[in-house]
Design a protein that fits this description.
Layout lengths: L61 E3 L6 H8 L5 E4 L2 E4 L15 E4 L3 E4 L16 E3 L2 E3 L8 E3 L8 E3 L2 E3 L4 E4 L5 E3 L2 E3 L4 E5 L6 E7 L2 E3 L6 H4 L7 E5 L2 E7 L2 E3 L6 E4 L3 E6 L2 E3 L6 E4 L2 E6 L2 E3 L3 H9 L9 E4 L14 E4 L2 E3 L5 E5 L36 H4 L7 E4 L2 E3 L2 H4 L7 E6 L14 H9 L3 E3 L2 E3 L3 E5 L4 E2 L1 H5 L18
Parallel strand pairs: 1-2, 2-4, 3-5, 4-6, 5-7, 6-9, 7-10, 8-11, 9-12, 10-13, 11-14, 12-15, 13-16, 14-17, 15-18, 16-19, 17-20, 18-21, 19-22, 20-23, 21-24, 22-25, 23-26, 24-27, 25-28, 26-29, 27-30, 28-31, 29-32, 30-33, 31-34, 32-35
Antiparallel strand pairs: 35-36
Length: 506
């Protein structure tokens, strides 16, 4: 699984791409912006101002002694379900074994006193695991656990119905949190974890009703996984996999190495709203091989400056975007709160480029170019159906491919000051495009078919937006770069009702 916008998506022949020799970028490609000292709009500063837990144990709570290693796990094991545990001030440790995690029982509550820390000492892999439902963790700092790649520290086994609130999960390997169905992740500090702040993945699938609200998600992917495993698509602030129904609202997602928020493979019915997404090395938001989403009222600032600059300096002509919609679109046949991808009333300011809608013509069910290996679209339950000759005819011709369609981009404000971004070219683009389909040899999507569809017939529209600064528009394929007048004229007729700067750049 993972993003597919790298060089390998583009065949060497029969399409010749225009590559700009000089990028006009200023500064070193590996330079990372300084961490954001304070949010630049109204949002909770959860990491700097955590809400303290109860100074005394609630009535009936089991006291956990920080002086006794393994006390939390042992008392959890000996207590019945629905027990409340109060962790006293100080540093709590588990037994010195990598599998010595706490295994909650159904309905357990874990409350931290002011100053309560559960520290894995880099010896334990997981803090809380098991399959018990409806577990609550509040007012606790969880740190120093050594989860393996793609695994998580809290709710390691992706149990359902957990509530994680007012908790700091920091300085762990792997992901700080995993997620299950009906999980509430609210007002937490997810900071400086090795891979993700949260990895919303459940091996059996079926995550629904996920709420991620009011968290600060900062500095994650400290292990720099995209360099350790190039193009793995396995890093960033939060990753979502096959989640059906998620509300992601009011979060401050900043200074993560890689993407801020990334929904990858058969997600559906997302509302991403009222977030502040800023200073992430990569895209603020990636919505990939997924369906039906509302992205609204977000403030998106200074994202993609590191990764966008790096690819531009390497001579890559792709419009690397701050909001990147990849093989994703609205689909009325899949139940959701919308049947489109609606992107509206957002402010995008001084990012590396704007919004790109992309579709890889070679990525479909059963194709070797499908990086979501073995997966098929939500419209086709049996991947074995997507073969010749059936795939060349309706309905499989349409249903075996993740399509970027029915994307409505309106009433947004796009602001770009190139001097603030530190570039002269390649940081000022929108895009709606695909590649020239070439393989496998039985593919029904060869040639310009997908590029023509995403550009002209799949209902992707920009309208009623406000632009400040100079903007260019990449259509059909990376060789076609338009100015605003061409973008608004025939045959594309985009951005009806939008406001563009005057010639002097106001």
């Amino acid at each position: 699984m993972g993003i597919e916008w790298r060089h390998r998506a583009w065949p060497a022949a029969p399409l010749v791409l225009t590559v700009l020799v000089a990028t006009g970028c200023e500064g070193a490609s590996d330079a990372r912006p300084k961490p954001t000292a304070a949010p630049s709009t109204s949002v909770a500063r959860v990491c700097a101002e955590p809400v303290a837990g109860p100074a005394e144990p609630p009535a009936g709570a089991v006291r956990i002694d920080p002086a006794v290693p393994g006390d939390l796990a042992a008392k959890t094991m000996s207590s019945p379900p629905h027990t409340t545990f109060w962790l006293g001030p100080g540093t709590h440790r588990l037994e010195p074994d990598r599998y010595a995690q706490v295994i909650p029982k159904e309905g357990n509550h874990y409350l931290g006193a002011p100053g309560a820390v559960l520290d894995g000492g880099r010896a334990s892999q997981y803090a809380f695991g098991g399959t018990a439902r409806d577990v609550t963790i509040r007012h606790l700092t969880v740190q120093g656990f050594a989860a393996p790649h793609n695994e998580g520290v809290v709710n390691h086994d992706s149990a359902d119905g957990w509530v994680i609130e007012h908790t700091t999960v920091q300085n762990n390997s792997g992901a700080g949190l995993m997620a299950g169905a009906r999980q509430l992740v609210r007002a937490n500090c997810l900071r400086n974890n090795g891979q993700y702040g949260m990895n919303a993945y459940q091996a059996a699938g079926g995550i629904s009703g996920l709420v991620v609200e009011g968290n600060e998600i900062v500095g994650n992917n400290t292990d720099d996984w995209e360099r350790r495993q190039p193009e793995c698509g396995c890093s960033g602030g939060v990753k979502f996999w096959a989640v059906n129904g998620a509300d992601v609202r009011g979060n401050w997602v900043h200074d993560n190495r890689g993407a801020g928020l990334w929904a990858d493979t058969n997600n559906n019915d997302f509302r991403i709203e009222d977030n502040l997404l800023e200073d992430n090395d990569g895209a603020a938001l990636i919505y990939e091989t997924s369906y039906n989403a509302v992205v609204r009222r977000n403030t998106i600032r200074r994202n993609n400056l590191v990764e966008g600059r790096r690819y531009a300096e390497d001579g890559d002509d792709f419009p690397f975007a701050t909001v990147y919609v990849s093989e994703s679109g609205g689909e009325p046949r899949i139940p959701a709160r919308t049947d489109r991808i609606e992107i509206y009333r957002n402010v995008l300011e001084d990012n590396w480029s704007g919004i790109t809608l992309w579709e890889n013509a070679d990525r479909f069910c059963n194709s070797p170019a499908n990086t979501s290996s073995g997966e098929c679209t939500l419209l086709v339950k049996d991947v074995d159906r997507c073969v010749q000759p059936a795939i060349a005819r309706a309905p499989l011709y349409a249903d075996c491919r993740w399509k970027t369609q029915r994307v409505d981009i309106h009433d947004n404000r796009f602001v770009l000051d190139k001097s603030a971004v530190g570039c002269t070219e390649k940081c000022d683009r929108m895009g709606v495009l695909a590649n020239y389909g070439t393989y496998p040899d039985w593919s029904p999507y060869q040639g310009h078919r997908v590029a023509e569809a995403i550009t002209g017939t799949q209902g992707n529209r920009w309208r009623n937006n406000v632009y400040r600064g100079t903007w260019k528009f990449v259509v059909h394929d990376p060789s076609k770069v338009l100015d605003a007048e061409q973008w608004r004229g025939a045959p594309y007729r985009q951005d009806a009702g939008s406001t563009f700067p005057t010639r002097d750049g106001d």
